[in-house]
Amino acid sequence: MVVLADPGHVAQGGRAVVAGSGVDAREIYHAGHPKGTAYDGRVETANAAIARPQRFRVTGGARLAGDVQVTGAKNSVLKLMAAALLAPGVTTLSEVPDILDVTIMSELLRRLGCGVHRDREAATVTIDVPQKVEHRADYDLVRRMRASIAVLGPLLARTGEADVALPGGDAIGSRPLDFHIAGLLKMGATVENEHGFIVAKAKQLTGATIWLDFPSVGATENLVMAAVLADGCTEIDNAAREPEIVDLCVMLGHMGAQIEGAGTSTIVIVGVDSLRPVSHTTVADRIVAGTWAMAAAMTLGDVTVHNANPAHLEIALDKLVTAGATVDRVDDGFRVMMDRRPTAVDAVTLPFPGFPTDLLPMALALNAVASGTAMVTENVYESRFSFVNELARLGADIRTDGHHAVVRGRPLLSGAPVTTPDIRAGAGLVIAGLVAEGETIVSEIHHIDRGYPKFDEQLRVLGAKIVREDDPAAGFG
Ligand code: UD1
Question: Does the CB atom of residue 231 touch ligand 1 within 6 A?
Answer without folding.
Answer: no
